[in-house]
Specification:
The complex is a heterodimer of chains A (about 120) and B (about 700). Chain A contains 5 helices and 5 strands; from the N terminus they run βαβαβαβαβα. Chain A is of the alpha/beta class and about 120 residues long. A 5-stranded parallel beta sheet of chain A has the order 2-1-3-4-5, sandwiched between helices. In chain A, helix 3 runs parallel beside helix 4. Chain A is globular and about 35 Å long. Chain B contains 20 helices and 22 strands. In chain B, strand 12 and strand 13 form a beta hairpin. In chain B, helix 1 runs antiparallel to helix 4 and helix 3 packs antiparallel against helix 4. Classes of the chains: A alpha/beta (about 120), B alpha+beta (about 700). Chains A and B meet through helix 1, helix 4, strand 5 and helix 5 of A and helix 1, helix 2 and helix 7 of B.
Chain lengths: ~120, ~700
C-alpha cells in the first residue's frame, strides 16, 4: 500500500452531528472519509469502498456497533482492518463487548481531534 | 477543541441542535407509545439512543448541564431497556417530564443561557432514584489514561531531560485477532524519541508447528525520550490486555536480569464470549419500527426557497407568454395552442411538485401539544388525555410555522374552560379524565383543524351577560346559540380574570382570531352544553401562492381570492336598489346583498352612473358568511399568483391583503374581502373616505 495515497477511513454513526465532527477532523488531518449512517449501510459501503481504518459508533439502529464489528471480522477481506469504536466514559461494558467482537481500539466521546488522529496512527500502517 | 476552526464548529453546532429537535421528537413519540402499551424492545431502544445522542453532542459543545441531565436520563432508560425497571404509568410520567426538561435544556443550550437549577434538580433527583447507584460521567480528561498500580523506583524530577526506557513487548494472539499491528505500534513508539529495537524471534517454531494465527515474536525497545511513562504506555493503550508489556527506566548497565525485576505488567486473560453482565444485547439486526424505507435526503432550506422563487417566475413567465400569444392572436393555430396548453399544465405540475417539497406533515405541531397538555394538567390539576388524528396531513412550511400559536390557544382554552376538574366530572357521570381531540384534514382546498373537548361546553348565559356588561351587544339583542358561542372572539371580551395563568401572556381569543385572519384563515367555535365544545380552524394550504380571480377596476388590476368567490354576476340596473347616497343593494337569488363599487371602496373614483351594460360583479363571502357583490369594470380570468407581502415592501393598506406581480410585470393588489365588506358596513351612513388611491 502506497504511503503517498491518503488513507480512507470509513465512519459509521447514526448522528449527523458526530459524522460532521468526524469528517471535519479527519479531512483536516489529511484522510479521505467515507460515511455510513448505521451498520447496514456500513457493510454495503465495504463492498465497494476500500477502508484502511473503520471508526464506528456502538449505539445505532438497524445494526449496532457490536453486530457490525462481528460481521466485518467474519469477512475474510476485513479480518485485518483496524476498527476503532466510539465510546463514552460511562460504557466500559459496551467497550469490552466491542473489543471481544474484535475492535482494535477505541476513541472516547467527545473526542479531541488530536487524540483521534493519535488513535488512528496507532492502528493504521 | 483541537485544530478545528471556529466557523466549522459553529456550523456543526447548528447541525447538532437541528438533530436535537429530531431526537426530542423521537423521545416524545417513543414514550407516548410506551404509554399506549407498546412493549416492542426497539421502541425503548430508540428512545435510549436518542437521549444518548443528545448527550454525545452536548459533550462536544461542552453543555455541562445538558450532559449531566441526559446522562441520568439515559441511565434510567438503560434500566427500562434492560428490563430492570417496569415502565408503569408513574415511571412513564417521570420519564415524560424528564423529556420536557431535556427539551428545555437543549433550548437553553442553543440560546447560550443556563437553566435555573430548581427547574432541573427535582427531576434529576427523581431520575437518579430510578437507577442503582451508577457512575456519574467523569470530567473530560485531557489524557485517557488509567494509572495502573506499578511498583517503581521513584522517578526523578519530571522535566525535559531525556531518559532511557526499556520496553518489553510480547503480543498475544488476540492482539493480531483484533487487527492490531505490532510494527505500527513500534513505529509510533519511535516517534517519541530515539529507539533501538531488538527482535526476539526465538519463539518461532518450525514450519510444521507454525500457526499463522499465533504469536511468536517479541521485541525489546530501548527508547531515549523526554516523554514520561504515560506517553509510552499510551502507545500500547489498545493492546495492553493482549500482550505482555513492561516499561521501565533503563538503569543503564545493570544486567538484564536486574532490569527485569521491575514491574512486569500482568496481562489479564482475554475475556471469553460469555460475559457476566446481565444487560441483554439489543436485538441485531432489528426490524425497524420507524417509517418505511422511503429514502430521504436533507436539503438546505435556502435551496428550496430559491427553487420556489424560480418556479414562481416560471409561472409568471408562462402567463406572460400566453398573454403575448393571445395578443398576437397566434393561438388560433392549433400547434401553438396545444403547445401552450401543455406548457401551462407542465408549469402547474412543476409548481405543485415544488410546493410539495416544502409541504410538511402537521405531526410536529401536534407533538408540541402533548407537552402543552402535560403542563396544563399540572397547572390546573385536571386530567386530560390528548388524542390526535390526521398527523400526516401536509401543509406548506409557511403555514406550519404559524399553526402553533392558534392551536396552543385553542388547546389551552379547551383545558382551562372546557374540561372540568376530575371530581366534578365524576359527579356528572363522566370519566375523570377529559379528552381533547386535535384533528387535521384537507377540506375544500384548505386545511381544517378541529380541537374538541368533552367538557362542559360554553355557558351561554354567562357569555351573554359578559358581552352585555362589556357593551359588546345590546341587552335586548336576539342572538342564536352559535352567535353567542362566537362572542368569545369579540374584541374586549376576555379580561384578566377570564384568562388563566396558563397562558401567562394574557392573550384573548380576539387576538387569536385576528392572527388567524391575517393568515387568510377562519376560526369559530361550536358547543353543546354539558357535552363539550369544538374549535374549528381553517387555513389556506399555503401562504405563498393564491388562486384568484383577476379583475380590472379603473384600469387597476386587482385579485380576489378564489376562496372568497361564489360566482360572477352581471347586474342589471333593474336589480339594483338604492338605500342611500353611499349604499346600494343588489337583488340576487331572492335575497339582497350590498353592492360595493370596488373602485370607490378603494379610492379609485366612483363608477359612472348609470351602470354600464358591461358591468360585472363578483359575489363574494367573507369569513363570517356575510356576502356582498363587488362591482368591477372587467373580469380578466382566473390566475394563480404568488403572494408578496405589501407590509414588508410598502405598508399596511386597508382593504388590501397583499400584492402580486402579474405576467406583464404589473403589480396587482390582492383584496382583503373581509375588510372591504366590513368597511362598507361602517360607511353605509358615513361620508366618503379616501383610502387606497394614494
Amino acid at each position: 500500500m502506497s504511503s503517498l495515497e491518503p488513507k480512507t477511513i470509513l465512519t459509521v454513526d447514526d448522528s449527523r452531528t458526530m459524522r460532521d465532527m468526524l469528517r471535519l477532523a479527519l479531512v483536516e488531518a489529511g484522510y479521505r472519509v467515507v460515511q455510513a449512517i448505521d451498520g447496514v449501510e456500513g457493510l454495503k459501503l465495504l463492498e465497494v469502498e476500500r477502508a484502511d481504518v473503520i471508526i464506528t459508533d456502538i449505539n445505532m439502529p438497524n445494526l449496532d456497533g457490536v453486530g457490525f464489528i462481528e460481521t466485518v471480522r467474519g469477512d475474510a477481506r476485513h479480518r485485518a482492518t483496524p476498527i476503532l469504536v466510539l465510546t463514552t466514559e460511562s460504557e466500559p461494558v459496551l467497550k469490552d463487548r466491542a473489543r471481544q467482537a474484535g475492535a482494535t481500539g477505541w476513541i472516547v466521546k467527545p473526542f479531541n481531534p488530536t487524540k483521534l488522529v493519535d488513535a488512528i496512527r496507532r492502528v493504521a500502517a | 477543541m483541537g485544530t478545528l476552526s471556529p466557523e466549522s464548529l459553529a456550523a456543526i453546532r447548528v447541525v447538532f441542535f437541528q438533530e436535537c429537535e429530531e431526537h426530542l421528537a423521537e423521545i416524545e413519540a417513543g414514550l407516548s407509545a410506551l404509554q399506549g402499551g407498546d412493549r416492542d424492545p426497539e421502541t425503548i431502544n430508540a428512545v435510549f439512543r436518542a437521549v444518548h445522542s443528545v448527550k454525545g453532542g452536548a459533550g462536544i459543545f461542552e453543555l455541562e448541564a445538558l450532559v449531566q441531565f441526559s446522562h441520568r436520563f439515559e441511565t434510567a432508560l438503560a434500566e427500562v431497556r434492560a428490563g430492570r425497571l417496569e415502565p408503569d404509568p408513574e415511571i412513564l410520567r417521570v420519564l415524560l417530564r424528564a423529556a420536557d426538561v431535556l427539551a428545555d435544556l437543549v433550548e437553553a443550550g442553543r440560546e447560550g443561557r443556563s437553566m435555573r437549577a430548581d427547574r432541573m434538580a427535582p427531576l434529576s433527583e427523581e431520575l437518579a432514584a430510578l437507577a442503582p447507584a451508577s457512575a456519574e460521567p467523569v470530567e473530560f480528561d485531557e489524557l485517557n489514561f488509567e494509572p495502573r498500580p506499578v511498583v517503581f523506583q521513584p522517578l526523578g524530577a519530571t522535566g525535559r531531560a531525556i531518559r532511557t526506557w526499556r520496553v518489553r513487548f510480547r503480543p498475544y494472539a488476540g492482539l493480531y485477532a483484533k487487527a492490531n499491528e505490532p510494527l505500527v505500534l513500534l513505529r509510533e513508539l519511535e516517534r517519541l524519541g530515539r529507539a533501538e529495537i531488538v527482535l526476539d524471534a526465538s519463539g518461532v517454531p518450525t514450519l510444521e508447528a507454525f500457526d499463522p494465527e499465533d504469536s511468536y515474536l517479541s521485541w525489546t525497545i530501548t527508547l531515549a525520550t523526554e516523554h514520561d511513562e504515560a506517553a509510552i504506555r499510551e502507545v500500547f493503550e489498545f493492546v495492553e490486555d493482549d500482550c505482555e508489556l513492561s516499561i521501565a527506566l533503563d538503569i543503564g548497565d545493570l544486567p538484564p536480569a536486574v532490569a527485569t525485576t521491575q514491574a512486569t505488567f500482568e496481562a489479564e486473560p482475554l475475556a471469553t464470549a460469555g460475559e457476566p453482565h446481565p444487560e441483554p444485547a439489543p436485538s441485531i439486526p432489528v426490524a425497524g419500527r420507524g417509517p418505511a424505507a422511503a429514502q430521504t435526503i436533507r436539503v438546505d432550506l435556502d435551496r428550496v426557497e430559491r427553487l420556489v422563487d424560480l418556479v414562481s417566475e416560471l409561472v409568471i413567465n408562462q402567463s406572460m407568454l400566453a398573454e403575448h400569444i393571445a395578443a398576437e392572436a397566434l393561438n388560433r393555430r392549433d400547434g401553438v395552442a396545444i403547445a401552450l396548453d401543455d406548457l401551462h399544465q407542465l408549469t402547474r405540475d412543476i409548481q405543485d411538485s415544488v410546493m410539495a417539497i416544502r409541504a410538511q406533515p402537521v405531526k410536529a405541531v401536534f407533538q408540541r401539544m402533548s407537552r402543552l397538555v402535560r403542563e396544563a394538567e399540572q397547572a390546573t390539576g385536571k386530567r386530560v388525555r390528548l388524542v390526535t388524528e390526521g398527523e400526516t396531513v401536509e401543509v406548506d412550511r409557511t403555514v406550519i410555522e404559524r399553526l402553533t400559536e392558534p392551536l396552543t390557544h385553542m388547546v389551552r382554552n379547551a383545558i382551562d374552560h372546557g374540561v372540568e376538574a376530575p371530581e366534578r366530572r365524576l359527579a356528572l357521570g363522566k370519566p375523570p379524565e377529559g379528552v381533547v381531540r386535535v384533528s387535521a384534514a384537507h377540506r375544500g382546498g384548505r386545511i381544517v383543524i378541529e380541537v374538541a373537548d368533552d367538557g362542559e361546553g360554553i355557558d351561554r348565559e354567562r357569555v351573554r351577560a359578559i358581552a352585555v356588561e362589556r357593551g359588546l351587544i345590546a341587552d335586548e339583542a336576539a342572538l342564536d346559540d352559535e352567535a353567542i358561542d362566537n362572542l368569545i372572539f369579540a374584541p374586549g371580551f376576555s379580561t384578566a380574570e377570564a384568562l388563566s395563568d396558563l397562558s401567562g401572556r394574557g392573550v384573548g381569543m380576539d387576538v387569536v382570531r385576528r392572527g388567524v385572519q391575517a393568515l387568510g384563515g377562519r376560526i369559530s367555535i361550536s358547543s353543546r352544553r354539558g357535552e363539550g365544545a369544538t374549535f374549528l380552524l381553517s387555513l389556506p394550504l399555503t401562504l405563498a401562492v393564491l388562486d384568484g380571480m383577476l379583475v380590472s377596476v379603473r384600469g387597476q388590476s386587482l385579485v380576489a381570492p378564489l376562496s372568497t368567490l361564489i360566482e360572477t354576476v352581471q347586474p342589471r340596473p333593474a336589480d339594483i336598489r338604492r338605500l342611500g347616497p353611499n349604499a346600494s343593494l343588489l337583488a340576487i337569488r331572492g335575497t339582497h346583498v350590498p353592492l360595493i363599487d370596488l373602485g370607490q371602496a378603494l379610492g379609485y373614483g366612483r363608477q359612472a352612473e348609470p351602470l354600464s351594460a358591461q358591468a360585472v360583479a363578483l359575489l363574494v363571502e367573507d369569513d363570517a358568511g356575510e356576502r356582498a357583490a363587488l362591482l368591477v369594470d372587467d373580469i380578466l380570468g382566473q390566475r394563480q399568483v404568488v403572494i408578496k407581502s405589501l407590509e414588508a415592501n410598502y405598508r399596511e393598506v386597508e382593504g388590501v391583503a397583499a400584492a402580486t406581480i402579474l405576467g406583464d410585470g404589473r403589480v396587482a393588489l390582492i383584496l382583503d374581502v373581509n375588510a372591504i365588506i366590513a368597511s362598507q358596513r361602517r360607511h353605509a351612513d358615513a361620508p366618503e373616505r379616501p383610502s387606497v388611491a394614494a
